[in-house]
Task: inverse folding
């Protein structure tokens, strides 16, 4: 009886702890969505309005359909291109992530099977990521202006591939390491060449891991702000940069509009996440447990 | 069909560990050779060099006289079966078996026919649609055999294929492998650390230790005529009784003396040099209860009935008890005191370095 009571108490404690943690994590998301449906005067209202009694789609219409009553100059200027930003963000994030994961997988395979990169070199590769982006901002801008890559999709894709490559290599390497070599050797002695073995045996076996890595890198590139801000001007704009533009000089942040855009920024990731959920669960668990 | 020839084969790993030191071995066409030795003796490394997974540091691997050192594994026309099966977990059994012919661009109809034939031969037709994870250990190893068999390799390399199975399955599959070898008449090179497997399967056994070949011979040769202490100790179950001591020569002949044992060496061994030595005798050559020239006064410390035979552990003052095999019906009990004799014509003598002291020919004991 006492044991049962203790167990129930422990369960209750666990529920409380996890519940409050869950609330802390979920509240900003809730606030974002709630704000996106609020009319102007409720954005800053005090006491706060938790859920508006007069929900409106105005924010969405203004942001995504451009039905702006142009009464604030700053807003009018910055609101021009949400769809362009979405297109650019999608192109840049998908291209950069795809390239990064593809290259990363090959490098990881080489490192794991052919000793292409020693553990030390791999670690140095990861060290690249320890440099705060702002530190390299100025030199990068100089390079890019000399190479005519400023304000271009190509330029951002290149910089994202380079900066996320360490993650791609490290993550996929842990998955490749778990595939027994003998499986590949069996393929080799049965007559499969090296590329064929990689394609027919190794890649299908680490598929979940590659998908998990893809998702991880996609989140990084999709939400990157600083480098995108520095390396773009007018031609190219990504969603995080666009998001930060919703600030009027006279009236402060236009929270409702920002929230409406932010919801749009979040949804694609959630959709991708749901599509590959099966792989994510497997990939994230079996890669991480061993290391 | 293939003749496998190893010439001065050597493998040094980065870091200086010498796994194989100058190995010379010929496996004749159609022969079943078992590479046997304790773990870490270099037998698997040797097999992997033949397969092409490891590059020899020195020496040659020849298949039918042709040096294949620089050939990719897939180009050597060998088949390999791994201890871990190494099946492709994401493919069905059918796809696993079909993999080899598909890589070698065999047309689909022929491929299907051959997969079915091989599956029938190994009694795994019912598994064809399953994944390897759904197969038991024995079934998985049959699939692995089938996958190798279907490519019709000129030689089979088997790396401890039965090590991960339980005893009963092991015997079953051992018989199966034996049958396959007889039916196919191909060259088999089989690696194991299990002396019993080696004895039952091999045409010839190659015993390895620390990267070196200790002895090559038929199972009966290595059992009855070991070249050194290591080989003598390795083969046989229960293993050979080894009594440490020294050889002393007197006018009357040579004597062997050690803790709990003192006996005159038979005339064939009378030429043994003086000094530290080890006397060996197989448990089946310890005669219990009989009168003899060199009886040992023993006390039975342990009786292990095995059914047909019984093992007696005899305490006579030596560091380790001497083991004797007696008839299973013999009524011995722990604590019995009895006389035992080491059959003089079946004694093995090893010098201080562990080398066998050969009996002189033509001298009757």
Result:
């Amino acid at each position: 009886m006492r044991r049962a009571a203790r167990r129930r108490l422990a369960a209750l404690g666990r529920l409380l702890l996890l519940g409050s943690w869950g609330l802390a994590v979920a509240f900003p998301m809730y606030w974002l969505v709630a704000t996106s449906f609020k009319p102007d005067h409720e954005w800053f209202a005090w006491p706060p309005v938790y859920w508006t009694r007069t929900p409106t789609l105005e924010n969405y219409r203004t942001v995504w359909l451009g039905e702006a009553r142009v009464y604030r100059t700053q807003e009018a200027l910055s609101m021009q291109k949400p769809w362009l930003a979405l297109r650019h963000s999608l192109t840049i994030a998908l291209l950069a992530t795809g390239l990064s994961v593809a290259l990363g997988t090959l490098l990881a395979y080489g490192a794991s099977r052919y000793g292409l990169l020693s553990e030390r070199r791999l670690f140095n590769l990861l060290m690249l990521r320890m440099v705060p982006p702002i530190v390299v901002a100025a030199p990068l801008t100089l390079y890019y202006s000399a190479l005519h890559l400023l304000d271009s999709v190509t330029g951002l894709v290149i910089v994202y591939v380079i900066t996320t490559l360490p993650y791609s290599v490290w993550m996929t390497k842990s998955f490749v390491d778990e595939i027994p070599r003998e499986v590949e050797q069996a393929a080799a002695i049965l007559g499969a060449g090296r590329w064929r073995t990689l394609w027919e045996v190794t890649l299908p076996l680490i598929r979940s891991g590659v998908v998990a890595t893809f998702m991880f890198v996609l989140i990084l590139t999709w939400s990157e702000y600083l480098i995108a801000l520095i390396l773009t001007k007018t031609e190219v704009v990504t969603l995080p940069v666009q998001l930060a533009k919703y600030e009027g000089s006279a009236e402060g942040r236009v929270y409702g509009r920002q929230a409406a855009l932010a919801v749009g920024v979040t949804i694609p990731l959630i959709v991708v996440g749901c599509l590959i959920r099966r792989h994510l669960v497997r990939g994230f668990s079996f890669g991480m447990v061993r290391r | 069909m293939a003749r496998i020839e190893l010439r001065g084969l050597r493998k040094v790993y980065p870091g200086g560990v010498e796994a194989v030191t100058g190995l010379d071995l010929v496996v004749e066409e159609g022969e079943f050779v078992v590479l046997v030795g304790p773990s870490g003796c270099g037998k698997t490394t040797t097999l992997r060099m033949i397969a092409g997974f490891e590059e020899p540091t020195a020496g040659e691997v020849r298949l039918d006289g042709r040096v294949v050192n620089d050939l990719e594994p897939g180009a050597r026309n060998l088949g390999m079966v791994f201890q871990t099966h190494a099946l492709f977990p994401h493919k069905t059994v059918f796809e696993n078996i079909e993999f080899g012919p598909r890589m070698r661009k065999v047309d689909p109809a022929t491929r299907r026919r051959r997969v079915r034939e091989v599956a029938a031969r190994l009694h795994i037709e019912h598994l064809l649609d399953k994944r390897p994870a759904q197969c038991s250990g024995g079934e998985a190893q049959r699939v692995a055999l089938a996958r190798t068999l279907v490519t019709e390799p000129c030689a089979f390399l088997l790396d401890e294929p039965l090590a991960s199975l339980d005893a009963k399955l092991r015997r079953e599959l051992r018989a199966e492998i034996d049958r396959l070898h007889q039916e196919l008449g191909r060259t088999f090179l089989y690696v194991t650390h299990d002396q019993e497997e080696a004895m039952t399967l091999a045409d010839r056994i190659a015993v390895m230790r620390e990267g070196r070949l200790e002895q090559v011979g038929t199972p009966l040769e290595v059992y009855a005529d070991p070249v050194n202490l290591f080989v003598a100790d390795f083969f046989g179950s229960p293993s050979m009784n080894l009594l440490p001591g020294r050889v002393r020569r007197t006018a009357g002949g040579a004597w062997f003396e050690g803790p709990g044992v003192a006996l005159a060496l038979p005339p064939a061994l009378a030429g043994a040099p003086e000094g530290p030595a080890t006397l060996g005798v197989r448990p089946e050559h310890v005669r219990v209860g009989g009168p003899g020239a060199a009886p040992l006064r023993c006390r039975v410390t342990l009786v292990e009935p095995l059914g047909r035979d019984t093992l007696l552990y005899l305490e006579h003052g030596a560091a380790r008890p001497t083991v004797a095999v007696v008839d299973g019906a013999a009524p011995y009990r722990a604590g019995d005191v009895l006389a035992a004799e080491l059959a003089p014509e079946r004694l093995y003598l090893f010098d201080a370095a562990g080398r066998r002291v050969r009996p002189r020919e033509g001298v009757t004991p």
About this structure: Chain A has 14 helices and two strands. Confidence is low (pLDDT under 50) at residues 287-291 of chain A. The first helix of chain A runs from residue 2 to 36. The longest strand of chain A covers residues 247-248.
